[in-house]
């Protein structure tokens, strides 16, 4: 059926899959053609049909569905799923909820998703396949590298740099100008006042390493 809108698949029928479907349903510019999941447990998700597992991807691509999104919260798994979707022939568009706010000069990479009430400040640069969850704030001149994630309510003050695949927990706050290294994890509610090395996990107020060397 021709819906007059570009068709898109959602890969992932978990909680983040619901969030992405909610974005698509609110956006109005996409036709959510279906959901794919590694182990489907239901036939519908928010009224959208679950079409099976990833073995269905080649046929769906040949049917004329040209876009897909890897709706997976785990950063490494999301990047891997994106590679499989590209290999199957799907484009990975940037998705922005209509209730999000984008400042002038902000840029978003392919496959990035910005959920409801998130704010992206002016001249912020967001890489590919970044997940910016509900109510997160990315202030002016921040840089988020590929595959990073901000959990709900996380706040990056101006000029913060987040490395590839880093995870910023719910409600965490990062001081202006701080750099968080690739693969680092910032615990929920943490107050980060200084740079965090790659791969380190920090938590608390002020944030400190959970497993210091």
From TrEMBL:
<dbReference type="InterPro" id="IPR018357">
    <property type="entry name" value="Hexapep_transf_CS"/>
</dbReference>
<keyword id="KW-0808">Transferase</keyword>
<dbReference type="InterPro" id="IPR041561">
    <property type="entry name" value="PglD_N"/>
</dbReference>
<dbReference type="Pfam" id="PF00132">
    <property type="entry name" value="Hexapep"/>
</dbReference>
<feature type="domain" description="PglD N-terminal">
    <location>
        <begin position="8"/>
        <end position="82"/>
    </location>
</feature>
<dbReference type="Pfam" id="PF17836">
    <property type="entry name" value="PglD_N"/>
</dbReference>
<protein>
    <recommendedName>
        <fullName>PglD N-terminal domain-containing protein</fullName>
    </recommendedName>
</protein>
<keyword id="KW-0012">Acyltransferase</keyword>
<dbReference type="InterPro" id="IPR011004">
    <property type="entry name" value="Trimer_LpxA-like_sf"/>
</dbReference>
<dbReference type="InterPro" id="IPR050179">
    <property type="entry name" value="Trans_hexapeptide_repeat"/>
</dbReference>
<dbReference type="InterPro" id="IPR020019">
    <property type="entry name" value="AcTrfase_PglD-like"/>
</dbReference>
<comment type="similarity">
    <text>Belongs to the transferase hexapeptide repeat family.</text>
</comment>
<dbReference type="InterPro" id="IPR001451">
    <property type="entry name" value="Hexapep"/>
</dbReference>
<keyword id="KW-0677">Repeat</keyword>
């Amino acid at each position: 059926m021709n819906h007059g809108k570009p068709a898109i698949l959602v890969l992932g029928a978990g909680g983040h899959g619901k969030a992405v479907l909610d974005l698509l349903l609110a956006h109005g510019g996409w036709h959510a053609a279906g959901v794919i999941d590694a182990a489907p447990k239901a036939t519908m998700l928010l009224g959208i049909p679950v079409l099976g597992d990833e073995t269905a991807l080649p046929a769906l691509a040949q049917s004329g569905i040209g876009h897909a999104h890897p709706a997976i919260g785990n950063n490494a798994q999301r990047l891997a799923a994106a590679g499989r979707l590209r290999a199957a022939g799907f484009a990975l568009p940037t998705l922005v909820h209509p209730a999000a706010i984008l400042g002038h000069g902000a840029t978003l990479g392919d496959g990035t998703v910005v959920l409801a009430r998130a704010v992206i400040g002016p001249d912020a640069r967001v890489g590919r396949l970044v997940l910016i969850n509900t109510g997160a704030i990315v202030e002016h001149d921040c840089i988020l590298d590929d595959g990073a994630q901000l959990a709900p309510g996380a706040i990056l003050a101006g000029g913060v740099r987040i490395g590839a695949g880093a995870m910023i927990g719910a409600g965490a706050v990062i001081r202006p100008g701080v750099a968080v290294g690739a693969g680092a994890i910032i615990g929920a509610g943490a107050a980060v006042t200084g740079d965090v090395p790659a791969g380190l996990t920090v938590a608390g107020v002020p944030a400190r390493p959970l497993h210091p060397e």
